Amino acid sequence: MAGGMTRGDRHRLAEVSELAGDRVLLGRSSTAERVADILRDRITEGYFPPGARLSEESIGGALGVSRNTLREAFRLLTHERLLVHQLNRGVFVRIVTVADLDDIYRVRTLVECAAVRSLGEPPHPVGAMEAAVVAGETAFEERAWRDLGTANLRFHQAVAGLAGSPRTDELMRGVLAELRLVFHVMDDPRRFHAPYLTRNRQILEELQAGDGAAAELLLESYLEDSRVQLSGAYAQRMAAREGV
What we know:
Blueprint: H1 7-20, H2 32-44, E1 53-54, H3 56-63, H4 67-79, E2 83-86, E3 90-93, H5 98-117, H6 127-141, H7 145-161, H8 166-185, H9 189-193, H10 197-208, H11 212-243
Antiparallel strand pairs: 1-3, 2-3
Helix pairs in contact: 1-3, 2-4, 5-7, 5-8, 5-11, 6-7, 6-10, 7-8, 10-11
Protein name: GntR family transcriptional regulator
Pfam family, one: FCD
Keywords: DNA-binding, Transcription, Transcription regulation
């Protein structure tokens, strides 16, 4: 302990210092929605990990926003299931349960498979999917496992984007942000992302070939395998945390 500060205290100060750099993103007309956008990005990037308490004073000061604006942003993110308010304790980044995780995959299967199924005649608009696949392969070659995870989630956002629906896009962003909270608890991102790189490429190639039915079958199997692997490992991780 140095200067009366713990390692956790120093880490939180570093987080807030980085957050102050986001202040320029607010512009002159800061709104709760823009604050929520910034905090959502920071949460999904892991700057505020699951279980972390969000300080109104520190975050409001870093972003230069009023307490009311910040509380409204917190309310929006609570509605998105990224934050949780605990009476007399404050606002915390939510810890996803195993039941939540299974439900996340249920929604993903419904949305992603339906997006592929709804495609009309080829060629299909798979540019965003292809970019995500290439980014994932590059991250794998560079052993940048966190970037690999990001590329994989962008791939699935792009799959949902095939529906051409802003509402579906918004729904999927929230679902994948919740999923990112799960990955922040796990300690081996390579294990949960690398095995699916080849399968991402296979789904992309089926769509490029105009075979949406084959792509949907691959996707459905992929999501179930991913759910089983991640749900089992996450349950063990959460049990270990509770046992500490």
